[in-house]
UniProtKB/TrEMBL annotation:
Recorded GO MF terms: 3'-5' DNA helicase activity; ATP binding; DNA binding; hydrolase activity
Full protein name: DNA 3'-5' helicase
Family: Belongs to the helicase family. RAD25/XPB subfamily.
CDD domains: DEXHc_XPB, SF2_C_XPB
Length: 827
């Protein structure tokens, strides 16, 4: 913290001085417990040390400082609060009751307005905003809160939001101003807007939105209506060196000088190169005026200076470090150098109101400009159509990146279905299809892996990559954008030259801390829809979620307790009770006419379950042609069609199966909230059965008294925050009638012991996946009808042999004497 006058700079997430945190005395959390003497002494020491300065980072570690500055939310969450001592007396004066101890904070000190009953929100002084969803003004308040705050939890009656620096940055990026945010919050709030929240909003929005990065005529400009801001940016030597000064700049503004005087100052000094002025105090010939404005009012002028294209990323980092993050906009209407694409929406295409609202956040600035950012819509709500509409609006070459080849086929098919694109104007770039579009402009649909892979490529693939990297793409659409922060996919954004970027996802969550990188790599979140609201309006299906607890047999549980973590995960999935629950649910739901997807991350379990029940399955090793056959028969409605298909995690994202109305999950990726929500999305499309009162069904099978219980509790968190409720079936007897259980597989102890012996013979990794079979027991299983591919298996065997050869060569190299190594290197 840093002291300034009588004020202190603090973090918004820290407790307010007047708030008392009280927890049950049995808990001993160093962050939340303040009722014992040690905790109070620690708090006092914190207050005593508030005036100490935080050591500045070393100058040589600039990149690390910039990264920490932007990716750490608390770095932006700064506000000023009065320096008040927190006394023990104030804590003891709080009236005790039977409910207060259940909550971490007490907000009773916030005085209500006289007409508070007619207002829909509570604004707490730690940045939390509580919305009464039953209020007559809830709809208007929700639209506003989605723009300025992050949704935390949205059940049926009460919604919780959180003000963050990133959410306020996104609000400013779509045109909201500081006074508007404050005025509307004050109008909706039941209590007077807390001063610390008011200060936080002012400080976060004071610099955000003041500077834009505009690509115009294939030239990058730093643009602002505030000359003093540009002056501050140019005081940074690295930004000053990145500027470009051209001889044809005819209307120039110098800070403190009139345009005509400045033109005389810089006459003969510009040379068309970057870094033309090494003196940071001399800002002549660097700022240009937008001549379309009235020259009598200089405050309305748009001032700008050009920067080198190769230095754009560095300039963005330095601007972030100076608390002026750049808003990226593309002036596509006036871009005469990038070829136009003749494309429009098909006459039969209509977009829904929430899709139009999300696109208005991208194009709402007017003047034919597009903002880069992220749109969050649940699966089945039409993310693909949003991307296609954006491409039809920009009308420039578009590159679409997906997670797998199936998604590539779906995007190409949807472009042809919903737009007027001609056949030669759209091309696919996958392992099996490498074509360029016809003409100067077109659409290419590919995968992240095809673009970002850094290993050896075939000659044809390398030529295609080289061509893609040389094209000036008007729009880059990133499907399932939550995968982009992975390091291997981040290369895409540094190699592909795109004027504007649009990220699409249903779940803007990751289990690591890299989701916030999207604010820098792509742009702020432009729009996020309410799942339950769309379900109530019939745009996505209503879902009944059920968690079924499956007890383990004594033999399996004894083996579970004696095994390592990897084998434990496999035993949890292969639990005979879980198998019987899955088999019974499939029979029950098929009889009811449902189309069923069964998910398993564990490939051994996927293989065993599917073959034991005689069902088709798809996993990573399944050939693309086989996948198409299985999915086509699943989508069909004939006697030969499949009612059930087993999928590995390859089906988590970008899989279009609108016919699916029931999902059973037997194995998952630890506690991944994202995966839970993505799988729920497979049954949200509401296209096949729309009879009155119909609900899709989502079943999660959990082995009792295992690690799956803890993982399941974490996985449900995202969907519960979206308003979904989980029904829990605590015993298998509540699901399966006793007379039916004996008819299911693995009902006899002999079958269970045989399965257990088979599992014991397997070698598994830490995640529970098999690394190979011992004693060849697994090979006794019948060959699957689907899921196997001879070409794929041969390819995997060749890769294993190549890896083994390299490891043997590396081991042989290590055994050589260092003297011979030096001699060979010199030779």
């Amino acid at each position: 913290m840093s002291k300034k006058g009588n004020m202190l700079t603090s973090d918004l997430t820290a407790p307010a001085p007047k708030i008392t945190l009280r927890m049950p005395t049995k808990r001993s959390s160093p962050e939340d417990t303040y009722v014992n003497g040690n905790a109070i002494k620690k708090r006092k020491s914190d207050i005593a040390n508030q005036g100490q300065a935080i050591p500045a980072p070393e100058e040589g570690d600039e990149n690390a400082r910039i990264h920490e500055h932007y990716t750490d939310p608390s770095r932006f969450a700064k506000l000023r609060v009065e320096d008040e001592q927190i006394g023990i007396e104030s804590r003891e004066n709080i009236q005790k009751d039977t409910v207060t101890h259940l909550f971490s904070q007490d907000y009773t000190f916030l005085a209500q307005k006289p007409d508070h009953r007619t207002r829909p929100i509570w604004v707490c002084d730690d940045g939390r905003i509580i919305l009464e969803a039953f209020s007559p003004l809830a709809t208007q308040a929700q639209d506003f809160l989605i723009t300025i705050a992050e949704p935390v939890s949205r059940p049926a009656r009460v919604h919780e939001f959180k003000l963050t620096a990133y959410s306020l940055y996104a609000a400013v990026s779509v045109g909201m101003e500081t006074h508007t945010i404050l005025d509307v919050l004050e109008r909706f709030s039941k209590v007077k807007l807390p001063e610390r929240v008011r200060n936080f909003i002012k400080e976060c929005t004071m610099a955000y939105g003041k500077v834009k990065l505009v690509l115009k005529d294939n030239r990058y400009f730093i643009e602002s209506t505030y000359p003093e801001v540009l002056k501050r940016l140019l005081s940074n030597l690295d930004i000053a060196k990145a500027r470009v000064v051209r001889e044809d700049d005819n209307a120039i503004l110098s800070f403190g000088s009139k345009p005509k005087e400045l033109a005389e100052q810089v006459n003969g000094k510009t040379n068309g190169t970057s870094g033309g002025n090494d003196n940071p105090d001399n800002f002549g010939a660097v700022i240009t005026l937008d001549e379309d404005e009235d020259i009598d009012d200089e405050s309305e002028f748009v001032h700008s200076f050009e920067i080198e294209k190769s230095q754009v990323e560095e300039v963005k980092k330095h601007c972030i470090g100076m608390d002026y993050p750049l808003m990226e906009e593309y002036d596509f209407r006036h871009d005469a150098l990038t070829p136009n694409l003749d494309i429009d929406l098909s006459p039969k295409t209509t977009i829904r109101d929430y899709q139009e609202k999300s696109l208005s956040k991208m194009f709402g600035g007017g003047g034919g400009r597009a903002r880069s950012g992220i749109i969050v819509l649940p699966t089945g709500a039409g993310k693909t159509l949003v991307g296609i509409t954006a491409a039809c609006t920009v009308k420039k070459s578009t590159l679409v990146l997906c997670t797998n080849a199936l998604s590539v086929e779906q995007w190409a098919r949807e472009f042809r279905n919903w737009s007027t694109v001609k056949e030669g104007q759209i091309a696919k770039f996958t392992a099996d299809d490498k074509k360029k579009f016809v003409g100067d402009a077109g659409i290419v649909v590919s995968t992240y892996t095809m673009i970002s892979h850094s290993g050896k490529r075939s000659w044809e693939t390398a030529r295609m990559i080289e061509w893609i990297n040389t094209v000036e793409w008007g729009l880059l659409i990133l499907d399932e954008v939550h995968v982009v922060p992975a390091n291997v996919f981040r290369r895409v954004l540094t190699t592909v030259s795109a004027h504007t970027k649009l990220g699409l996802t249903a779940t803007l969550v990751r289990e690591d801390d890299k989701i916030e990188d999207l604010n820098f790599l792509i742009g702020p979140k432009l729009y996020e829809a309410n799942w339950m609201d769309l379900a109530q309006r019939g745009h996505i299906a209503k879902v009944e979620a059920t968690e079924i607890w499956c007890g383990m047999t004594s033999d399996f549980y004894q083996e579970y307790l004696e095994s390592r973590p990897g084998k434990r995960r496999l035993l949890s999935v292969m639990n005979p009770s879980k198998f019987q629950a899955c088999e019974y649910l499939i029979k029950q739901r098929e009889a009811a006419g449902d189309k069923i997807i069964v998910f398993s991350d564990n490939v051994f379990a996927l293989d065993y379950y599917a073959k034991k029940m005689g069902k088709p399955f798809i996993y990573g090793g399944t050939a693309h042609s086989e996948r198409q056959v299985v999915l086509a028969r699943f989508r069909g409605d004939t006697p030969q069609s499949y009612q059930t298909v087993f999928l590995s995690k390859v089906g988590d994202t970008s899989l279009d199966l609108p016919e699916a109305t029931c999902l059973i999950q037997i194995s998952s990726q630890f506690g991944s909230r994202r995966q839970e929500a993505q799988r729920m999305g497979r049954i949200l499309r509401a296209k096949r059965r729309n009879e009155e009162g119909f609900r899709s069904r989502f079943y999660t099978l959990v082995s009792r008294d295992t690690d799956e219980v803890q993982f399941s509790a974490k996985r449900k968190r995202f969907l519960i925050d979206q308003g979904y409720e989980y029904k829990v079936v605590a015993n298998l007897e509540q699901l399966i009638p006793p007379e039916e259980r004996g008819k299911l597989h693995l009902s006899s102890r002999r079958e269970q012991v045989e399965l257990l012996e088979q599992i014991r013979s397997l070698s598994v990794d830490a995640s529970g996946d098999t690394m190979g079979e011992e004693d060849g027991s697994a090979s006794d299983l019948p060959r699957p009808r689907f899921g196997g591919s001879k070409a794929k298996k041969l390819e995997e065997a060749a890769r294993r042999a190549e890896r083994q050869r390299k490891e043997e060569a590396k081991a042989k190299e290590k055994t050589k004497h260092s003297l011979f190594k030096s001699w060979r290197a010199g030779k």
